[in-house]
Amino acid sequence: MASAEDAQHLSTRHLLGIKYLNEADIRLIFDTAREFKEVINRPIKKVPSLRDITIANLFFESSTRTRISFELAEKRLSADVVNFSASSSSVSKGETLLDTVNNILSMKVDMVVMRHPAPGAHHFLARHIQANIVNAGDGTHEHPTQALLDAFSMQEVLGDLRGKHIAIFGDILHSRVALSNIFCLQKLGAKVKVCGPPTLIPKYIPSLGVEVSYDLQDTLRWCDVANVLRIQLERQEELRYFPSLREYARFFGIRKDLLDQLEKPILIMHPGPINRGVELTSDVADSDHSIILQQVENGVAIRMAVLYLLSALRPPSSSG
Ligand code: CP
Fold first, then answer.
1. CA 171, CA 252: separation in Å to the nearest integer?
2. How far is CA 227 from CA 95, 144, 196, 274, 307, in A?
3. What is the pLDDT of residues 241-256, one digit of tens each?
4. Ligand 1 mean position, distance from CA 122 (Å)
5. pLDDT number for residue 1
């Protein structure tokens, strides 16, 4: 592995969203992730690439996969890591986002990985601090590393995604995974369709060049990959987008009998956490066509690649 200074460069020093990456950036991240995937499958899973770097993981919203995956990626790269969780911090005493981050940066932090409920919170930070910023999810806007690991996982199975049919099912309205997936897959030349109840599909989707379908079986027949999203009950004040979870599962839940009727097998993906029995039945989630756990595994290599490549673009005297 070349040192971060010798590596090819990304076109941006922050990962705020897939919208701001170009195709070459995405392919560079994938090439680098492929090398790191080899590293994490060795008996000694660590490289010294970021041993002089300190990274703060700031999570203002709950997370299992993303948070653990970033922390593992940072530790595999030998970075120093500090973890911050809003629920156990002075945010509950009224401290602003900028004050919180500036206080952390004054302790000589080089990179910030942040999940925040406010769409655009990372753009705000990027205007005010020097450290590299990685978006680990901003409200209902973007979740760029999820989209990168999703596309990387698809490519491992299907090869080049150009012309491949990828369908994103479910709660598009409340999802940050959907928009990042759409941007990423389109930049890699795939055709993207979304499918769900009309109330859960934003009106702007066709303006992105994405087809919309309300017909589950028709979309299953069309696609090579079904990327199934969670119904985000925590972002809905009350159940008002569909009559009941039972009815949602009946019309939009993916079941094994539906997959058995298809002429060809399709790949099943889900970013997690899964509502088993709602958007997917367990026999689909756990089937041989599901790559849900491979997605999680690839997340570590993708996040190592992102952190490694961004670290080459930090200012000479970073920290704050
Ligand atoms: N996929 C994903 O973002 O999961 P977490 O919310 O558990 O991080």
1. 10
2. 38, 15, 12, 12, 25
3. 887 889 999 999 999 9
4. 18
5. 55
**Of the residues 60, 63, 153, 175, which should be mutated to test ligand 1's pocket, given the most ligand atoms within 8 Å of the CB?**
63
Superfamily for domain range 4-143+298-311: Aspartate/ornithine carbamoyltransferase (3.40.50.1370)
Helix (H) or strand (E) holding 219: helix 216-222
Distance 141 CA to ligand 1 centre (A): 14
12 is catalytic: no
CA 262/CA 256 separation, integer angstroms: 10
66 is catalytic: yes
- Dump pLDDT digits (tens) for 51-100: 999 999 999 999 999 999 999 999 999 999 999 888 777 777 788 889 98
Sheet containing strand 80-85, strands side by side: 80-85, 54-59, 111-116, 132-138
Give residue ranges with CB within 6 A of ligand 1: 63-67, 137, 143, 146, 271-273
The domain spans of the chain are 4-143+298-311, 144-296
Nearest CA to ligand 1 atom 6: 63
Asked if the domains 4-143+298-311 and 144-296 are classified in one and the same CATH topology, the answer is yes
Question: Which residues lie closer than 8 Å to 249 by C-beta, 6 or more apart?
Answer: 277, 278, 279
Residue nearest to atom 1 of ligand 1 (CA): 271
CA 202 to ligand 1 centroid distance, Å: 22
pTM, two decimals, is 0.94
**Multiple choice CATH, 144-296, 3.10.310.10, 3.30.300.20, 3.40.50.1370, 3.30.1340.30:** 3.40.50.1370
